[in-house]
Amino acid sequence: MAYDFDLYVIGAGSGGVRAARFAAGFGAKVAVAESRYLGGTCVNVGCVPKKLLVYGAHYAEDLEQASAYGWTTGEASFDWATLIANKDREINRLNGIYRNLLVNSGVVLHEGHARLTGPHEVEINGQRYTAEHIMIATGGWPVIPDIPGREHAISSNEAFFLKELPKRVIVVGGGYIAVEFAGIFHGMGAQTSLLYRGELFLRGFDGAVRKHLAEELSRRGLDLQFNADIKRIEKLDDGSLEVELKDGCILATDCVFYATGRRPMLDNLGLEHTGVTLDEKGFIKVNEKYETAEPSILAIGDVIGRVQLTPVALAEGMAVARRLFKPEQYRLVDYRMIPTAVFSLPNIGTVGLTEEQAREEGHDVQVFESRFRPMKLTLTDCQERTLMKLVVDARTDKVLGCHMVGPDAGEIVQGLAIALKAGATKRDFDETIGVHPTAAEEFVTMRTPTA
After folding, report:
1. pLDDT digit string (tens) for 173-196?
2. Annotated domain spans of the chain
3. One fold for both 5-142+263-329 and 340-444?
4. CATH architecture of 150-260
């Protein structure tokens, strides 16, 4: 059968664009459909604008500490509208770059809501197209729980477009998005509380990292309330919000921001016209080749619920493009040793196993840990401390995990991720000469196990 396209991608986020561009580069006839914004969540309402806001929030500390280095800055003020306008301009620029990447690669761009009408057919804007392969890369969508007054709460989708900075904010959630936005609002001067229903946030991260960050955030004046959850939200006549917790406590705020999870974005996608199946959490089931139960339909990225990170979606998109159209270059995506960062204030950078995971897997664990005040702060009154930690297998000397809380943690851990991916031992770390004077050199000078 002759198809209109070799590959039809639904969703122009990071993974979908990567798959489309490279498939076209390998000689395939490719189309991409996008109903919202080019670049997907990451570029528009995710990692990119979020990090710009993190940078903005961090300037408060820089201005505060400048006097210790002889600078007289005068009275500082912050204008939320200026930051958002500049952020919007940058995102618009990136949207244009994504458009050019697709068009210049020879990809056909369809702007509208695409819907599956069969295993090899897509309908969009009243037109139907056939494709030998169809890829679903529609990403995720934030979830706000069904509680009374949920319509008064916002998610990350709305937070980037607030007209003004709320004076009081309650952030609900214990994942990295909640922690990051709590730091953003707090750093910009809002009275901020972070509520999490569990004992301690960032479940799945190393225990020392979680505790250390909680201590640092509390030291900065961020209100952390664990074992807390919202029962209802009520909007008062003056426009403020009254929040009742499940324990009966009443809180007053101007904004309730939920970051309590994301669902796969499958709305009106037409899956019922195919054999595609979902798992128990509602994500699309795929095999190691990203094939669904309908062999002609593939799925990658957040919609399959594996590792929901932009670089992972990129790797998955590349893997599919290679397997279909450049098989001699194909290789499986390796989900081990994926480095990640949390752009909290201070940052987290991590790669490999946590101490808890290493012990659960039966390793004979040695822990090397250092906590210190960064050199930049020694002339200031700031008492913030950096944490660096290595998890090592005592039998093989192999470094199993590397964790950091402190300035530029993500930048530092990216380089260490290469070492861990290559199988570096603690001896390799010990025999590496450090860059002095830096915080990063602490990773190659820790000699005595702490546990």
Report:
1. 999 999 999 999 999 999 999 999
2. 5-142+263-329, 150-260, 340-444
3. no
4. 3-Layer(bba) Sandwich (3.50)
Q: Give the type of residue at 447.
A: R
User: Is 363 in the active site?
Assistant: no
Residues 399 and 352: beta-carbon distance below 8 Å:
yes
Which token pair is 391?
A: 């998890």
Crossing angle for the helix pair 310-325 and 14-25, nearest 10 degrees?
A: 30
CB atoms within 10 A of CB 148: 12
Q: How far apart are CA 369 and CA 267, in angstroms?
A: 47
Nearest to 170 by CA among 225, 111, 231: 225
Q: What is the topology classification, in CATH, of domain 5-142+263-329?
A: FAD/NAD(P)-binding domain (3.50.50)
356-374 pLDDT tens trace: 999 999 999 999 999 999 9
pLDDT tens digit string along 130-165? 999 999 999 999 999 999 999 999 999 999 999 999
Give the active site residue among 58, 186, 273, 436: 436
